[in-house]
Amino acid sequence: MKDVFVDVVKTIWHSVFVDKWRLLFTRGMSKRGSYAKGVAKREEILERALEVVAQHGYQGASVKEIAEAVSLSQAGLLHYFTSKEELFAEILRTRDTHDQAAFAEPESMVDPTAFRRSYLAVVQHNAQVLGLVHLFARMNVDAAAPEHPAHAYFRERGVGLRGMLSDIARTAWEGETGPAGMRPEQFAAIVQAVTDGLQAQWMLDPEIDMAGTIDALLAALIPGSAAPGDAD
């Protein structure tokens, strides 16, 4: 009788606890698997969208076209992004990641010469992808509204860029004061304003030499940062 009771208890324990744990574990694995697939699909969308926007620009890259590029319906695409504006903000983040991987030198965060070389390489590359310049310039204006999906991206980008530029200025000047008494924070704001503003001007007149203009600015504000052949 005791053996029968033990068998019954084992059966109940297994069915109530072991099977339930297995079910929860399986569900957890399923959710994690679905999450991983969702992340992978989102990354695929961003990579293809980056190509579409680079070719066709902000106005030419419709949700329909991007959705077709990744074999999704428009509704399916918006399952991963709440709006076209959010999608485009994430495209810009992806572009920044690509630029950093392609052009940033290990020393560019601390060495003015390496920074100048890397910064100009990004500007020169931007001149080859008209669609992304259009996207950036258009959204840079629209995102001034706090409720815009790209507002956080542009604020974070600005804070990060100005912080890096300020550090470069301090290193180059060996202190807090540059040409004409300029402060590192002022240098950072000027370089960002010129870089972003030139993109808008370049869309109106592609003959403008963005890289050459920024190079001249950096040469004036951080003397000695150029290495032979950097401005070629």
TrEMBL record:
Question: Where is the DNA-binding region?
Answer: 62-81
Q: Which GO terms describe its molecular function?
A: DNA binding
Record's protein name: Transcriptional regulator, TetR family
The record's PROSITE patterns line, in alphabetical order, gives: HTH_TETR_2 (PS50977)
> What keywords appear on the UniProt entry?
DNA-binding, Transcription, Transcription regulation
Gene3D superfamilies attached to this UniProt entry: Tetracycline Repressor, domain 2 (1.10.357.10)
Tell me the ranges covered by the HTH tetR-type domain, including all copies.
Answer: 39-99
Organism of origin = Agreia bicolorata
